[in-house]
């Protein structure tokens, strides 16, 4: 027992934790793989067949040589390590992901290498490196069992004696070995005709595996291949194999940070190195290969999808490729870490995890020849599908690009070309080409020596992008070459022509082809340098983008315990301020990225570093930022989107080169152990049974283990002290886990327990997670919107809500897609939501058709709409909104249509109602979804719809603002004041509607018809309506109450109040009025739009009061001078606030100038105060009359010379006022006197002339004649105060809408 403790005590510092052997258990014999049966059960369940019949009995259709049989862990040493408990099921499943594989002497039996990782529930990782080879079967029972199975197969399938049909199991979990050559099955049928025990030799796969705490891939590969070489060699190894296994398990330590270590394999020394504290963490998987397989452009896109936490599925025949790409892409995320499901090799039995409605990064093995289109994936709306073998990726729609993408690709391409690798992808890595090589357009290398077929076969084996899967003829040539004397000459020739020779180790001798050890070392050094330089390029992007992130971290809690307890309620990062500090081109990406779980965890780690040791990646990243600040003393406010190249590529490569060239530590040599004589006798080609007693116990006398034991005791003491100082450790660990897993809906899948009950439990976790995510997202969307309205009321600060709002809505669309994808019976199309909507539409339209055929009259309803002069009610239905989306030619895909439909429903405040309607057809939901699906969990579904209902409390314009180029039908209704007889006019009326995105142009209205519809390009939010007529006929006077305009797609209705006459000789003589509109409150009752005066939507009590001041002026109501001054102050204040908001967040300036609470109305009241407007037996006088008389006086005074004595600037001001008034009067528009005054104020505000014109009007003698003594305009102090208030508008660039200044020539 003491020995085991000694071994496990040092485990955290050991190079390897376990040595494992997996293979066939001769005692239990051939057992069908239960996992394959479970997979068939799941597949049948997915396709709606009876799963129980699918998984019963043997699969006799398939040749027994192609079937999967159960593998077992035959031995593992030591028995257990305290720090890393041995999970037998998981290790067995990942060492042999498709179970045992059988071969005969006619088949290719090349050894294979792959790696895997196991992520434990706390997020820590253990790496496994596996060397699989074929060993002859000596058990007569197994040979005869195989013979019997083969005869049964022949009896069942006489026609296909040797060819085997592909089962569904094969399609997703075929053996890697079958993929070795397309000709393997034909070779089997032709040469050996299946299996005959009397004439064929049977071989079975066996796996040797090292399990390590760190990913030392090259070192493990080298050690395992040397052990295999020792088994296959003619002579026994120098020492028993136990000595080498014992050495690597107990006597080889982990290299200390920043140091290199040499230890000894069976034949050659092995070197590994570990980065120092300030360097990027260890990553031994060859990144160059990842870039070669995918190409730079594809890899950057995949990197971007990973950062945005999409679902990522890697697809390849080769397990090692899956692992290399998965590890490569997660390595590039530094300083961030992937926080969701991570299974680089997904065993067939875990296929149901593709149904997970959460972000994941998984690798799926493909069968050669399997068509991608046949692969049915549960959800694809947010999926990035990476077909590694075909060097292509399928991207999700509509996601922001990584900042400075072209420059990043350029820099990465330069690094790759420096190492002789094509940035295009699809070709294997080559050395720097010499003059005798040419690179074809596809990036594959071809030499200028045609000739020998054998040379061609060798070169294709090395340079083939298909992982060495040669065609039949080429493979036959290759087999002839094996053991051939000319092989070495060919290899030398290949080397001279610049072709890489490493792949040949699988063909001929292990290392000799490289010309000794130095070539292997050179290759490893080259890979290590390339790895670190590529990673540095990505790391420097983050160092630049997040250089000042620390300034925006909100440290709000006094201690760790209170922070962990309130983690969910706290804002940890000031997102709005951070985004406002970034360059414009970065915003689309950054606004999405700072919403991800990996960014949230990064910030959490930063906050927790106040109270505990910094997380290693964070420590390195912060160190780099500090270093960059020392060298680069730029002002943090100066943000530039210029690309900054990485400056430390050379140093990073040199650091690795120095470590690998100058070895810091050498481990103890393997030595003879105290073993029983005669056991484990060497027999060529067979891996011996190792003596477990010497391998389960570590050495008790070496000084390294004593040193680590002392260090461990010191650690333990320190831990006990800190426990007294801080939280109870268990409690703290619980909080930490909860904090870290916040927002993760699922922990890593546990590989060992896969019963249907566990699958059901997993799905229940998904349902709970989706509901929690929905609650968080809707709450966040509400807080953002409420925050914006608080800004409008003067609380809080402005923030970039437009951008954030778009990000939040995009993430809501993503969540809805994931909910609709969960538990689907059969996948149809890329968008699960749109597919459901189409099913619903088909059913509803069928019902409509049936109702239309039945003789039911719709009379009363039609009469109701005709009897209403107001806006007829808009039909609300799911189908109607779908038809609007289907008619939009701009949207080409189902995912795009689903997103547009969500945006439209959200803008109409109908999202919850529509989805409730959709799910009310329970028969349809049952047909489309399995029992465990989220949409069939009644209580959760109700809560989900309730959370969505809360979004109706705020206004979204997420459809109108995104689809700016679509054609939209508008309906305009003119509502006259009916009390007076001439509600109708004999003249020809017209209307022109303007919005933030343009105007409709002049639309003629049919005489005596008060309603019209027209189609035009999206106008955005509507701002003004120009209403007029041509003054023809006898009844050319028209009293209009208001104009209502509705967007027929979104249902937004705008009200444009008028309340004035249009006609010559009545009111102010206007034939045209510019009406300013605001969004009308939607009301369940249709009557809201008929002439009744429903108050407009009020934003705050202050504004309600101001409405009464300006709009009541003409109705006998006289506001006091204090109220008038307050109204002017409020109007100017609103304009100032408007310009202080980010540009994308500003509303309509026209409303602030000319609306009911605008500047024009307030100034009109100022000019009306004390104005002698009514004359006995005379026409009413307007303020514009006073302006015209004042201008006439100035012009006559100027002609008489009086003005020449005035100061020059005053003279110029006088000229400008006269010029503007004359331009307004000579305009072809008949806008009436009040309209002309409005125009003068707007132009004066725009051109910063108002405060110069006011003194002129006050000095003019006309003032005394037209104003009473008490008028505000005659009070010098008040006028000066008004000038001071208006002065503040000079800081802002006021632009006027075209509808206001049309026809004015200045």
Automatic annotation (TrEMBL):
Record's keyword terms, sorted: Guanine-nucleotide releasing factor, Membrane, Repeat
Domain RUN: 803-964, 1150-1299
Annotated signal peptide: none
Region called Disordered, residue ranges: 154-188, 427-454, 701-722, 848-869, 1093-1112
Domain PLAT stretches: 968-1076
Subcellular location: Membrane
GO molecular function: guanyl-nucleotide exchange factor activity; small GTPase binding
Major site of localization recorded for this protein: membrane
Compositional bias of kind Polar residues: 701-711, 1100-1111
InterPro entries: cDENN_dom, dDENN_dom, DEN5A/B, DENN_C, PLAT/LH2_dom, PLAT/LH2_dom_sf, PLAT_RAB6IP1, Run_dom
Pfam families in the cross-refs: dDENN, DENN, PLAT, RUN, uDENN
Keyword Repeat carried by entry: yes
Cross-referenced PANTHER family: DENN DOMAIN-CONTAINING PROTEIN 5B, PINSTRIPE, ISOFORM A
Protein name, as recorded: DENN/MADD domain containing 5B
